[in-house]
């Protein structure tokens, strides 16, 4: 009997981990928002013993988690302790990053306030993180230290985390379990690389153009990256495959631009050409603008490839932006005290209304910057698609109606001066079935760069549907001076103003012109007419005014 007791004593001393497995805990947490708990959530799980903490979830423990997903570990065995985050991108790719400075990162105000959570007495600690008020309710009744979030690990066992009094993570169950917590082996990277890889894994990123030169040359250069060039190099085009996108996905287009020699503010447009049963704008780009559908307003001019018809679908303008005066290339030419010129402009715009039309499609994405300069501009472009939280959303249909932005300006398209007659712009279209929640996505900017030109004079844009006026507004920007640091060679006047400061007809150098969404209500199946009227200013000598307008119908099918 004495020999048995001695053997048991030696086993407990030499092999404490066998007993440690008996002392482990599994703590399950549920998230809530304003007191409401989502029944479909994947609960957070902490596996805790005196040497290690593992943060995971029910689905991850069951091997049913969707990629990408994260877990974390607190390794109390090392000196200093380690906070280890792991990211799993696929069955074959995982990364981890290790933080040894996580303890003491936050300052906590410890209070005497207590409450019971699952029968354990918990104390409140308070801290502020990025202007958010954080409450951590921790207990010392359990022999370990752990928290379901990165903070509070040193306090005790945190059983509730509350942010700004309304978002909470609360322990719902505590069980003793038999387990060993082990760390998987994977590639270790620095925190910045880890965060970047994790961020990029959460959405779809489609590069379209990378540092492509848009300039005016006799023979545009050809490249091996699938980029086509038109209109003496001022237009670039690329075929892009869009994957299947889940309902509720949000889409964005982002362009980055800088000057490679052109010093002037220029109209720029990112446009889409999709497959269609009708002739598309691509035909005119490839065969010449004289081969494409034209529109007449009665003034004798033929407007090429701008207006939809029974046999033609115009390009779809995703984003219109305006280059500044010489950003980057001319930064060293002009020195002004107190001004540090920026080196590029980033233009980013939500295009979620086109997600349903793009999903699973092969389309052409184009980029245009109007210029007559051999250096021209540098343009990079990407599309990103981000899974949304709403999955039960009606599918958005689109119907392109007009796009008068003359992206083939240097290829013989001509300028959109059709608003010089009473007819203006009139488009006939037909809905094959009744449409619900119809909107006109309308982008408009006025041009004519002298004092009497429409660039600098307020002009109402009036929209008519089936002969009835539905909208009239004056598109005007008064915030252009906010973007002065993008405009190193903007002209300066005797009165102290710079050209880039001046208010304009809905655009500023270095900015996007966002769409107007004009509500048309529900429309019956059949034929309809959209009209756009603008009191376009008269020409003066060789100077003339014109309006770049684009319009796409957005609607939900009733069936």
Describe it.
This protein has 559 residues and is mostly beta strands. It folds into 2 domains: 20-197, outer membrane lipoprotein receptor (LolB), chain A, CATH 2.50.20; 203-557, Jelly Rolls, CATH 2.60.120. Helix content is 8%, strand content 42%. It is built from 6 helices and 34 strands. The strands form 7 sheets. Strands 1, 2, 3, 4, 5, 6, 7, 8, 9, 10, 11, 12 and 13 form a 13-stranded mixed sheet that branches. A 5-stranded antiparallel sheet has the order 15-16-25-18-23, with helices on one face. A hairpin with a 3-residue loop joins strand 3 and strand 4. Mean pLDDT is 94; it is low at 1-22.
Q: Mind telling me which CATH architecture of the largest domain this is?
A: Sandwich
Distance between the termini: 84 Å
- Counting copies of identical and different chains, the oligomeric state is single chain
CATH class of the largest domain: Mainly Beta
Strand content: 35-45%
Question: SSE layout and pairings?
Answer:
Blueprint: H1 2-14, H2 16-20, E1 24-33, E2 36-37, E3 44-48, E4 52-57, H3 58-61, E5 69-75, E6 82-88, E7 94-99, E8 109-117, E9 120-129, E10 132-139, E11 157-163, E12 167-177, E13 187-188, H4 191-200, E14 204-214, E15 228-230, E16 235-241, E17 250-259, E18 267-273, E19 279-280, H5 281-287, E20 294-295, E21 303-304, E22 312-313, E23 316-322, E24 345-350, H6 355-358, E25 362-369, E26 377-386, E27 396-403, E28 425-431, E29 435-447, E30 461-465, E31 468-473, E32 516-523, E33 526-533, E34 546-557
Parallel strand pairs: 7-13, 19-22
Antiparallel strand pairs: 1-2, 1-3, 1-12, 3-4, 4-5, 5-6, 6-7, 8-9, 9-10, 10-11, 11-12, 14-26, 15-16, 16-25, 17-24, 17-26, 18-23, 18-25, 20-21, 27-34, 28-33, 29-32, 29-34, 30-31, 30-33
């Amino acid at each position: 009997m004495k020999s048995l007791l001695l053997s048991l004593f030696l086993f407990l001393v030499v092999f404490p981990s066998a007993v440690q497995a008996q002392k482990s805990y599994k703590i399950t947490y549920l998230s809530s928002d304003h007191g409401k708990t989502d029944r479909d959530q994947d609960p957070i799980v902490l596996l805790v013993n005196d040497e290690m903490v593992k943060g995971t979830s029910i689905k991850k423990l069951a091997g049913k988690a969707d990629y990408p997903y994260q877990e974390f570990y607190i390794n109390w065995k090392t000196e200093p302790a380690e906070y280890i985050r792991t990211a799993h991108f696929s069955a074959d790719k995982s990364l981890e990053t290790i933080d040894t400075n996580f303890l003491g990162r936050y300052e906590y105000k410890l209070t005497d306030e207590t409450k019971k959570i699952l029968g354990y007495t918990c104390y409140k600690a308070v801290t502020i993180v990025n202007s958010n008020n954080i409450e951590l309710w921790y207990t010392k009744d359990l022999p370990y230290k752990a928290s379901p979030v990165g903070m509070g690990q040193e306090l005790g066992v945190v059983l509730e985390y509350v942010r700004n009094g309304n978002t909470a993570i609360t322990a719902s169950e505590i069980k003793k379990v038999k387990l060993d917590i082990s760390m998987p082996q994977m590639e270790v990277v620095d925190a910045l690389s880890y965060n970047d890889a994790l961020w990029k894994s959460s959405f779809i990123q489609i590069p379209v153009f990378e540092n492509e030169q848009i300039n005016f040359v006799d023979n545009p250069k050809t490249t091996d990256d699938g980029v086509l060039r038109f209109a003496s190099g001022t237009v670039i085009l690329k075929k892009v495959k869009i994957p299947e996108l889940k309902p509720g996905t949000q889409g964005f287009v982002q362009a980055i631009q800088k000057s490679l020699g052109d010093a002037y503010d220029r109209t720029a447009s990112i446009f889409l050409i999709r497959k269609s049963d009708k002739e598309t704008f691509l035909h005119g780009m490839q065969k010449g603008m004289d081969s494409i559908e034209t529109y007449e307003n009665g003034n004798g001019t033929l407007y090429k490839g701008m207006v939809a018809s029974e046999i033609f679908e115009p390009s779809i303008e995703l984003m219109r932006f305006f280059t500044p005066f010489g950003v980057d290339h001319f930064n060293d030419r002009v020195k002004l005290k107190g001004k540090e010129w920026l080196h590029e402009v980033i233009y980013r715009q939500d295009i979620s209304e086109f997600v349903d039309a793009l999903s699973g499609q092969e389309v052409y994405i184009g980029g245009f910057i109007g210029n007559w300069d051999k250096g021209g501009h540098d343009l990079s472009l990407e599309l990103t698609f981000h899974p949304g939280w709403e999955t039960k959303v009606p599918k958005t249909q689109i119907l392109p109606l007009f796009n008068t932005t003359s992206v083939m300006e240097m290829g013989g398209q001509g300028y959109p001066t059709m608003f010089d007659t009473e007819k203006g712009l009139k488009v006939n279209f037909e809905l094959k079935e009744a449409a619900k929640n119809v909107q006109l996505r309308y982008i408009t900017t006025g041009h004519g760069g002298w004092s009497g030109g429409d660039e600098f004079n307020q002009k109402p844009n009036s929209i008519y549907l089936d002969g009835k006026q539905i909208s009239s507004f004056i598109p005007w920007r008064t915030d252009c001076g906010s973007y002065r640091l993008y405009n190193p060679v903007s002209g300066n006047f005797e009165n102290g103003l710079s050209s880039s400061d001046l208010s304009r007809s809905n655009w500023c150098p270095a900015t996007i012109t966002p769409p107007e969404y004009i509500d048309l209500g529900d429309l019956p199946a059949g034929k309809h007419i959209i009209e756009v009227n603008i009191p376009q200013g008269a020409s003066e000598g060789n100077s003339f005014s014109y309006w770049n307008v684009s319009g796409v119908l957005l609607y939900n099918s009733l069936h």
